Amino acid sequence: MKGRLVALGQYRGREAAALVVDGRLEDLLVAPADDAAPAPGAILRGTLDRFVKGQGGVFVKLPDGMTGFLRETRGLTPGQPILVQVSGHAEQGKALPLSTRLLFKGRLAIVTPEAPGLNVSRRIRDEDARAHLQALAEEGMAGSDFGLILRSAAEAEEDETVAEDIAALRALAEQVLADAKGAPELLVDAPLPHEEAWRDWADPAPDEVDDGNDSFARHGIDDLVEALLTPDVKLHGGWSMVIEPTRALIAVDVNTGGDTSPAAGLKANIAAARDLPRQLRLRGLGGQIVVDFAPMPKRDRAAVEQQLRAAFRGEAAETSLAGWTPLGMYEIQRKRDRLPLAEVLQGAAL
Q1: pTM assigned to the model
Q2: In terms of domains, do 75 and 101 share one?
Q3: Which domain, by its residues, includes 236?
Q4: Beta partners for 14?
């Protein structure tokens, strides 16, 4: 299976989307259960509750008895209604992380009410194309104080399509911001997998889009997903790693198997470093991550860390590479931008 494939189908009875590049699963989206908390991107109207000085934030009352936590507190008073956007997934037993910096995302554009200014993606390098898109942005946002970002996918689209996307997002943003007062309510839900896939996997354009109900089975994606539900990961070169979520952190153990040669540790660790971001993304894992790399000389640590930094560079989830601990572990902090895949699939049909 060569090229870039987007499969829009179902997995265990849930709406799902998969991005496969040259036969390798690169991204996966599976709809959560109907009673799951709002996902990142959802916009809600809440009511400010109590400030927590020790944690530097304020709790927010949300619809259906849910609670969120907001760190931006300047100018806020308890009891006032407020518009917030879910910015991540909550740890078990904790409040939903929220932000007041609303983003209205489309396939071609992003409207930013709290960040004025008209911008074109830096990935668009052609100066004539940038100037043309800038003119479309100015026309579409004329008379508005909202900001706008035109995404790289806009370069390949017709002017009318770009203008329609801008107009739809602007109208939605204006409607939501005009509805700031009242009881807690869900105003804009997070996109489901098919919509999110069209929005975020359009650039570069896929070579094939299969939106049949049996698309996952037809392309062998079911088997690729099943492999993510076990902790064992086979790496290029015959090495392996084990990824095990615990309550406190994500533990990663890199193994060389039966190869005890002096070079085995470095080779296995480089293979693990290159594949770790993809594995965390596909499994929906974030938070504190501790990697126990295979034994290697200390002089080789710089080479492994270089591979880690290169591998995480293109990740959408905010990631901090904290570095080596005194005991030789490597610590990573990754934003919880998705629910763990195993948690999403709890209760799903087999």
Answers
A1: 0.89
A2: yes
A3: 230-344
A4: 11
